[in-house]
From TrEMBL:
InterPro entries xref list: Annexin-like (IPR040685), ASTN1_2_Fn3 (IPR045574), Astrotactin (IPR026995), FN3_dom (IPR003961), FN3_sf (IPR036116), Ig-like_fold (IPR013783)
One Gene Ontology cellular component annotation held by this UniProt entry: membrane
Biased composition (Basic and acidic residues): 1-18
Region described as Disordered: spans on this chain: 1-35
Top-level taxon: Eukaryota
Protein name: Astrotactin 1
Positions of the Astrotactin-1/2 Fn3 domain: 152-273
Domain Annexin-like: 275-367
GO biological process entries: neuron cell-cell adhesion; neuron migration
Amino acid sequence: MRRKETKESYKSHKEKDGNSPSEESEEREKEPRTLTYPAYIASLLDTGAKRMAAGVRMDCNSQGQCPRSCHLCHMSPRTSQGRQQSEPVLLQITKAAPIYELVSNNETYQSLQEAMMSMLWCSGKGDVIDDWCRCDSSAFGTDGLPTCAPLPHPLLKLSYTYEPSSSLVIMEWNHTEPPIGVRIVDYLISQEKVTETMDHSKVETETLLSFVDDILSGARSPCVMLGDIPDLLSSSISMIIRCLEPDTTYMFRLWAVDNTGRRSSPSEVTIKTPCPTVDDVKAQEISDKIYNLFNGYTSGKEQQTAYNTLMDLGAPTLHRVLYHYNQRYESFGEFTWRCEDELGPRKAGLILSQLGVLNPWCKGLLQEPKIGLRRMSLKFLSCRYTDTKAFGLNWSHMGQDVHKACDEQTLTVMYNDYGEPKEL
């Protein structure tokens, strides 16, 4: 009797507590796994590279849950049981393809291809013939030159490698031309000195040179020399411009010229050259020489030697001679007073008048206790007169031809460093 009660109590206890753990896991395995549609699309993109056609792109995004008031959304029957309700998604499928591949007619295919080539290389105003543009009758400027192929705009800039000196600058630009439509045959370079005044600036045009006819040929460019020439590895062109005046503002302009005679819009660089360069060691030696000439009895020959020496110095070095003389020998008389005493007012006035040539900024630099002189070697190409037509204007191979006709030489450029050197 007690045994029967035990079985019945176990049965009632089992019904009260629910299913066993093993039965619950089996029930969960029977339920379908939930996979959202965006996740399904993402899985195709991650693992289905072979399924996707070339150029096809699929993008699937969830747009939020369906509101109960929307009769167009399908509501899950188990929403009331706590399951997530259906979500609208947006699937976008695109395939990249050239426009002319979407047409099957051969004539339409060719017309679209020609139209796209015209838009790419000839501004849509002409036909591509081999590697050039045949412009339409309406694509000509007021000067009668064709305008359908856009002309490249070269960018003139100062060299990043060499700083300007008081008499020399290095200008650079990259030679670029499209494979179709335009052929650059020359560059024009202009050099202008700008005279600054109180109310306006006056521009004095000094030089206009053709890169091919004047510089590359070596015909007439004593103050302009070649630096770098385009080759298979580089498209850079550099020019060394000498014979500049210290402490002067210059404007340089560059135009590209194509085979029809068109000029590009100019690229401009304006620069002011540094103050004149001085050799401070030489200035100290001259100050000692002048002291020795002035010391004691001064004959007419010694006076003339001192006068000639000081008149030939130029304003920058004369400032440094005055500085060193007064630093060492002012106790025997200040420099300007000694000049008047030894040479007379007229000759002394001619010498000292040179001191007013420099501007206040350069005068201030020349009063520095120490002025160093730094020398730098600069390579350039010295070209003999050469028929540039022999080069064939093949810019990528021009470097080889130019090096055959030009000699590589070295130029020494001097710079001043003012004040004591700073430790880095």
